[in-house]
Design brief:
The complex is a heterotrimer of chains A (about 325), B (about 300) and C (about 525). Chain A is mostly helical and about 325 residues long. Chain A has 14 helices and two strands; from the N terminus they run αααααααββααααααα. Chain A has one domain: ABC transporter involved in vitamin B12 uptake, BtuC (Orthogonal Bundle). In chain A, about 75% of the residues lie in helices and about 0% in strands. In chain A, helix 3 crosses helix 13 and helix 4 runs parallel beside helix 6. The two termini of chain A are about 15 Å apart. Chain B is mainly alpha-helical and about 300 residues long. With about 525 residues, chain C is an alpha/beta fold. In chain C, the strands form five sheets. In chain C, strands 6-7-8-3-9-10 form a six-stranded mixed sheet, sandwiched between helices. In chain C, strands 15-18-19-13-20-21 form a six-stranded mixed sheet, sandwiched between helices. In chain C, helix 12 packs across helix 13 and helix 13 packs parallel to helix 14. Classes of the chains: A mainly alpha (about 325), B mainly alpha (about 300), C alpha/beta (about 525). Chains in contact: A-B, A-C, B-C.
């Protein structure tokens, strides 16, 4: 087994999430240089605010990936879109229906999660295919639904998602707290330990008396519900849902997990790294925008970074 | 022997049924011109399915074949027309990209899902760099080729037959093809017999790259213009085509003829939906649904574990 | 082919270590051309390791390898072995199920290519199958996945005898007859005569001693990495073979004597016999029951059946009323039970998993300690403490959250009790030696307070000192009412057990109480020979 590296280098190696924060800092520094310091802090605030959506779906994807190789949730975009449309349709611009709308969004996620679990566990369909197909079906459902319903978020929710108080995005603060809870659950709860155990060795987990199918079902349900929530909030943030709003989240959900330091082979999750990675990814997009580079290069850079990190990490 | 025949027989029967329904709905389709029109857009699907089949033969999956087709489409609509030599070079680089991807996946033991998904963004980004908005000019020779009318058989059917025959020959009848398929089921045995697993994967991915290029060119020829997002749908379609055509995700079980049959089935699904006035937004869902249905039925047929 | 003056194969002083374990401790071996050598031995004798070295799939640590007069000790690998005419058929099949029979033949022969390769490959494998297994009924065009296990073994064996660019000089068969049906096994044996007449040598490893003695020319008996007996086969009988396996060499330490106990505790596990007049499997509270016999003859399957049955009980899954020999009342559906506090008393019955005879019945909670720690024991990314407490996290959790204080306390307690050598419980588990890692797995099972502990050969490859400590720990636990089902591949460990069941080919052949335990009796039962004393 690898010998423990001594000193600072050793400590750094054991904290994979730190790299994403360092990289984010560097990119932000580059932006500051390019814009000659104008609006440096607000840039960071907005980046963190947008990053929040990546983090929400990233938490779910991280749990699924941590549960072991072969596990992945590709239905995230579909859930986001359908949840967003149905939530907005329920809210219909009124604060009175805010709670109902959010619940509908999460319910869409729950239903999807159940379908995913049935496909994977009862019909033994490989997760990537089952969730991918379900995602497409949800997208079609969203297209059908969007035709007949209006798309106005409840004003209170829209305010919440866009609120920035002295350069601190409030929604991000809320979800930093959520992230901390998730980290605690993963590290200290029976369920969290089960996820980590199953991800390292499902056989050993079974022989240690853990409930493997239940644990796997749990991560897919959580991921889908978080996607539903993300779709709802994103729609409120954008002033309404749109059919292509989930597209970029497929790769981004995986990207924040990988760049954040979580092991793609499962069994070990770097929860803190999600924020660093999400902020980094958004800052890269911002930097490329500031440099007036087209959308194309943004995609190329993101893809190359992900493959590069995967290829190099071990 | 029976199981293998059954694998391709079922989709073939399904295809025949679908054609029968279409002919019954629209008797005019049953002509050279009608068939050409009906199956024209099967050409890119056939190539995409064949490419996906090569990847699935290694027990991997390619989630980026759709955007790859878009990229080739855009190269055809820009470089190939303006500067053919550069265009050809770019296409060769695309194939090389697939070979490198295969090598990387093998050497670093990376999951193909995530790597090909990351690659899909690279293909999409490159396509957008070439053509930020749809347009461009596809060279005349390519559009002419796509609208060629061979004397007996409509072009798309001819292409399907050729791809199926070549795939069947190369993968199922050559001696190295047997080794390649073995990689997907028992790589350790293949390695112990002295074969290079790295070379095998690179070959399969390279073949996928070549087929992807052909698919993108076909798409360009049919559309006569370039669009960075046009190919995205082909990813799920290609996976569904290969599996419905009789292949399995793991174990190196692939059926080249079945992949072509599956591609036609997927295309005709869209046509049937159109005839019944279902909007095109449901096309991918229908394909996803068929895929799940086929997998579910196979599971039931296998019985309780 | 020029006549070689010496033997075809000569191995001298072959040594091989796996970490701390000495798999081969200086083995000499000669095989003459046209002779068949049978190799027999109990678990851990080193038979398979020796053959892997001969076939080139494993490098020897030291020793000489001379084949057909050439010294090939350096840089010897599979390709070299193949070129020199050495073929091997191992127990784990190396066929590709998705390929057809003749395509699998192609995989092994690079020269089968070019036009008409398929015809040549078909002809080659059909000829080989016809030669070895007349009337085999296998079509070379069949995909391997459609073949039965016996047919697949036939294809592998026939493939080993095929000749293309390299000659076939020696074919190693490791337990070939265990997956062959009776006809095919006989055909293989008679073919071995024909092969030998052609000058091909054979190595035949098998646990079917009668079969071995009938057909081989020479025999080699191995034990614990050494050759303990050998010579012409007609100088031996089955009994004398088993006796020679029981030879204990001087430097082995005598195991500590253990007092035997009487079965006073409540019945915890029961499985009816698999045939009329057979032996039931029973375990009582406070007992240590050993499972012996050759590796892979049903012991692990029994352990997994007991485990699965207990899981169903714990999760309240199956509520079929069961009235087995235990005569217990129908089961009530309820929430998951935790163990502890009720050990030794009557518990609700458990519906169970079906074995070859009938349902195994389990009363009590169960923990499993695996000997295969890499795939089914250790959580490699975790610390010692986390690995220790994982089986009991529900017990140390409040409102679903683990109490870190209790976790640390439990881990430290067991670290001290089992004397696990680690500076702290936060140490990553892979930083520990193999033996200490195994101790952590044992601690996991002990700590979770299970009534029944299943041990699947956990001490294989562990150093003697650790073993002693664990034997003592097991003894102490039995005083608390725990019972153990202990599968071990090392007969010397059986002395720690109150009773031993010996397995052969999936069924129990003998039940030996502690007082009557002798290595000879275990070996006889391990090779399917009925006990001399009437049962």
């Amino acid at each position: 087994m690898a010998t423990r590296l001594m000193g600072a280098r050793g400590w750094l190696a054991r904290q994979p999430w730190i790299w994403s924060y360092l990289a984010a800092l560097i990119v932000w520094g580059a932006i500051v240089v390019v814009v000659h310091g104008h609006g440096a802090i607000p840039t960071l605030s907005v980046a963190v605010q947008v990053a929040t959506f990546f983090v929400i779906v990233g938490i779910g994807q991280m749990l699924v990936i941590t549960a072991g190789p072969g596990n992945i949730d590709l239905s995230i975009p579909g859930v986001m879109v359908l949840a967003g449309f149905m939530a907005m349709g329920t809210m219909n611009g009124s604060d009175a229906d805010l709670a109902a709308g959010v619940l509908i969004g999460i319910a869409v996620g729950l239903a999807t999660g159940i379908v995913n679990v049935v496909l994977i566990q009862v019909f033994t369909i490989p997760p990537m295919i089952g969730t991918l197909a379900v995602g497409f079906i949800l997208q079609s459902l969203a297209i059908a639904y969007s035709g007949g319903h209006s798309q106005v978020p409840a004003p209170a929710l829209a305010r919440f998602t866009t609120l920035i108080v002295s350069d601190v995005p409030i929604m991000a603060v809320v979800f930093v707290a959520v992230t901390a809870v998730v980290a605690t659950v993963l590290r200290r709860s029976v369920f969290g330990r089960s996820v980590l155990a199953v991800g390292q060795s499902p056989r050993a987990a079974y022989l240690a008396g853990l409930r493997v199918p239940g644990t796997l079902a749990g991560v897919y349900l959580i991921s889908a519900m978080l996607s539903g929530l993300a779709g709802t909030l994103l729609s409120a943030y954008s002033g309404g849902a749109s059919l292509d709003m989930g597209e970029v989240y497929l790769l981004m959900s995986i990207a924040v997990v990988v760049l954040g330091g979580t092991n793609i082979a499962g069994g070990q999750a770097a929860v803190a790294g999600l924020w660093g990675a999400a902020t980094l990814l958004d800052l890269i997009v911002t930097m490329l925008d500031v440099m007036r580079v087209g959308a194309g290069l943004r995609y190329v850079v993101t893809g190359v970074i992900i493959i590069g990190v995967l290829a190099v990490a071990k | 022997m029976g199981a293998a025949r059954l694998r391709v027989a079922l989709p073939a029967v399904a295809l025949a049924l679908m054609l029968a329904v279409i002919f019954w709905q629209q008797p005019r389709v049953m002509s050279y011109f009608g068939l050409t029109l009906l199956l024209n857009y099967s050409m890119p699907v056939v190539f995409a399915a064949a490419a996906q089949m090569c990847i699935i033969a290694a027990s991997d999956i390619d989630l980026g074949i759709g955007p790859f087709l878009s990229l080739v489409n855009c190269i055809a609509a820009t470089l190939l027309d303006a500067r053919p030599a550069v265009g050809v070079g770019a296409l060769l680089l695309c194939v090389a990209g697939y070979v490198v991807m295969g090598a990387l996946i093998h050497v670093r033991s990376l999951p193909s899902i995530v790597v090909t998904l990351g690659a899909s963004f690279v293909w999409l980004g490159l396509a957008l760099l070439l053509l930020p908005t749809p347009g461009g000019t596809v060279p005349a020779w390519l559009t002419d080729a796509s609208s060629w009318r061979p004397s007996l058989v409509p072009l798309p059917i001819l292409v399907g037959i050729v791809v199926a025959a070549l795939g069947q020959f190369l993968l199922m009848r050559t001696s190295y093809g047997a080794v390649l398929r073995g990689v997907g089921s028992n790589p350790r045995a293949i390695e112990r017999a002295g074969w290079s697993l790295l070379a095998a994967r690179m070959t399969l991915y390279g073949a996928a790259g070549v087929l992807g290029v052909l698919g993108g060119l076909a798409l360009a020829g049919l559309n006569t213009s370039g669009d960075a997002t046009v190919g995205g749908q082909y990813t799920l379609t290609s996976i569904a085509a290969v599996i419905v055509g009789g292949a399995e995700f793991f174990g190196g079980i692939v059926v080249p003829v079945g992949a072509v049959v599956g591609a036609w089935i997927m295309l005709l699904t869209g046509s049937l939906l159109a005839f019944v006035n279902v909007s095109s937004g449901w096309q991918l869902s229908a394909q996803g649904g068929i895929l799940i249905l086929v997998l579910g039925l196979r599971r039931l047929a296998r019985g309780p574990r | 082919m020029p006549r070689e003056s010496g033997p075809l194969i000569a191995l001298g002083g072959i040594e091989k270590r796996f970490g701390a374990v000495r798999a081969l401790a200086g083995v000499d071996l000669t095989i003459d051309a046209g002779h068949m050598l049978g190799i027999v031995g109990h678990n851990g004798a080193g038979k398979s390791t020796l053959m892997q070295i001969l076939a080139g799939t494993l490098p020897a640590d030291s020793g000489r390898i001379v084949i057909a007069g050439q010294d090939v000790s350096h840089g010897y690998d599979v390709r070299r072995a193949h070129a020199l005419g050495i073929r091997c058929v191992f127990q784990e099949l190396s066929l590709c199920p998705n390929l057809r029979v003749f395509e699998n033949a192609r995989v092994n022969h690079k020269s089968l290519r070019g036009p008409a390769w398929r015809r040549r490959a078909r002809r080659l494998i059909r000829a080989a199958l016809d030669d070895v297994f007349p009337d085999h009924g296998i079509d070379p065009d069949q995909p391997v996945e459609s073949l039965s296990l016996s047919q697949r073994q036939m294809v592998e064996i026939a493939r080993a005898f095929t000749v293309t660019e390299a000659p076939v000089r020696l074919v190693i068969l490791d337990e070939p007859t265990s997956s062959l049906d009776a006809t095919a096994a006989e055909q293989l044996m008679s073919y071995s005569g024909a092969a030998r007449a052609r000058g091909v040598s054979l190595v035949f490893i098998s646990h079917r001693l009668g079969e071995v003695l009938t057909h081989v020319d020479d025999i080699l008996v191995m034990r614990d990495g050494r050759v303990v007996a050998g010579g012409r086969a007609d100088a031996y009988t089955e009994e004398s073979l088993v006796e020679s396996m029981g030879v204990v060499t001087a430097d082995e330490e005598a195991p500590d004597a253990v007092r035997s106990r009487t079965m006073t505790g409540a019945l915890r596990v029961e499985e009816p016999p698999d045939r009329p007049g057979g032996i039931s499997f029973r375990v009582h509270a406070g007992e240590v029951v050993g499972l012996a016999g050759l590796d892979g003859h049903g012991q692990r399957d029994l352990l997994l059946r007991v485990f699965a049955a207990a899981q169903a009980w714990r999760h309240g899954v199956d509520n079929r009323p069961s009235r087995g020999p235990l005569g217990l009342a129908p089961f009530r559906k309820g929430k998951a039970r935790s163990a502890g506090g009720t050990r030794g008393g009557p518990l609700p019955p458990a519906p169970s998993r079906k074995g070859r005879g009938g349902f195994v019945q389990v009363q009590g909670s169960v923990a499993f300690v695996s000997g295969d720690r890499q795939t089914e024991g250790v959580f490699p990314l975790w610390s010692v403490g986390e690995n220790t407490t994982i089986a009991l996290i529900r017990l140390i959790a409040r409102l679903g959250f683990v109490s870190l204080g209790m976790e640390a306390k439990t881990a430290r307690t067991w670290r001290d009790r089992l004397r696990i050598r680690t500076p702290s419980i936060a140490q990553p588990i892979l930083g520990l030696s193999g033996g200490n890692q195994q101790k952590v797995l044992v601690a996991r099972a002990f700590a979770c307070d299970a009534d029944i502990v299943l041990l699947a050969d956990p001490l294989r490859g562990v150093d003697v000192g650790t073993k002693r400590e664990l034997y003592a720990a097991v003894r102490r636990q039995t005083e608390l009412g725990r019972c153990f089902v202990w599968y071990t591949t090392e007969n010397a460990e059986l002395v720690n057990c109150d009773r031993v069941y010996v397995f052969y080919q999936g069924g129990i052949t003998d039940e030996i109480p502690h007082e009557a335990l002798t290595e000879e009796r275990v070996l006889r039962a391990s090779f399917g020979q009925e006990a001399a004393a009437a049962r």
